[in-house]
Amino acid sequence: MTALLEVHDLSKHFGGLAAVNACTFTAAEGQITGLIGPNGAGKSTAIDLVSGFKIPDTGTVLFEGSQVQGKAPHRISRMGMIRTFQTPREWPALTVLENLLLARWDGRRERFWRSVRGPSRAEKAAAADQVVRARNILDEFSLLELRNERAGNLSGGQKRLVEFARIRMAQPRLVILDEPMGGVNPVLGERMATAVLGFVTDGTSVVIVEHNLPFIERVTDNVIVMSEGRVIAEGPFDSLRSNQDVVDAYLGEMPTYDDAVV
Ligand code: ADP
Ligand code: MG
User: Is ATP-binding among the key words of this record (predicted)?
Assistant: First the structure.
């Protein structure tokens, strides 16, 4: 299995606190990799370091074999790695459809706007194709009726779905999702699980941080467990239930979940 993302010995301190401490893990191409751990474990900081939003003190991040640590976020996203934040981000004043049309990562975005204004019939046809594609994706996410709504007016769950639709539109090589279920109505959970599995079908590998362990169990191929800035365990979700370090880190959270399922 090819490692799409290789993180080696990554560290980040805030004053005296080692938020991420010699973290090493990989995410394989074509897989959904879970990143779990208690609050404050360093998951979001690790994502910030990988995606260029923070600069690591030490360590390397290889994306498709190229070093990306310390590069600006827009450069990393143009290479095909995009990430979401714990709170959805959208262009609030633009419509849902426009938000999708702008969701390209490799320069096609600029080409899209040029083609709208441009004189060439071929360019106009390409732009029209993108609108058709965006509408199809919105339809899949049951968002088509909201296409002319300003994205800023949507509910938290709808904004999350728009974000997922934008990822489908962009088709990056890798998407990193930071707690996509946070603050989302559980009714949306099933659609979000389907959407995450759909990313992989579409050629987008996934790294997902999520506290909802049934969701993690359902969608992931492999799970990395962090605690106090370090990776303490790694493996398929099932293999982690009986791992004492993991159970200890969660202070019994995982066994409670087992009980709930039985
Ligand atoms: P997680 O996402 O796993 O909950 P975070 O990466 O957000 O954890 O945080 C890891 C640790 O780093 C926590 O103790 C948090 O308080 C601390 N931390 C995160 N960001 C900052 C910051 N900008 N300044 C100082 N401390 C921070
Ligand atoms: Mg976090």
Answer: yes
pLDDT at 67 > cutoff 80: yes
Q: Which atom of ligand 1 is nearest to the CA of 37?
A: 3
Taking the C-alpha atoms of residue 135 and residue 102, their distance in angstroms, rounded to an integer, is: 13
Ligand 1 atom nearest the C-alpha of 46 is 6
Handedness of CA 144, 146, 149, 155 (dihedral sign): negative
Residue nearest to atom 24 of ligand 1 (CA): 14
Instruction: Tell how far the Cα of 178 is from the centroid of ligand 1, in angstroms.
Output: 13
Nearest-atom index, ligand 1, CA of 38: 3
pLDDT score, position 142: 92
Distance (Å, rounded) from C-alpha 222 to C-alpha 234? 7
Closest CA to 54 of 10, 92, 98, 97: 10
Q: pTM (2 decimals)?
A: 0.90
Sheet architecture: strand order including 205-209: 81-83, 174-178, 205-209, 32-36, 222-227, 230-235
Q: Which residues contact 260 (CB under 8 A, 6 or more apart)?
A: none
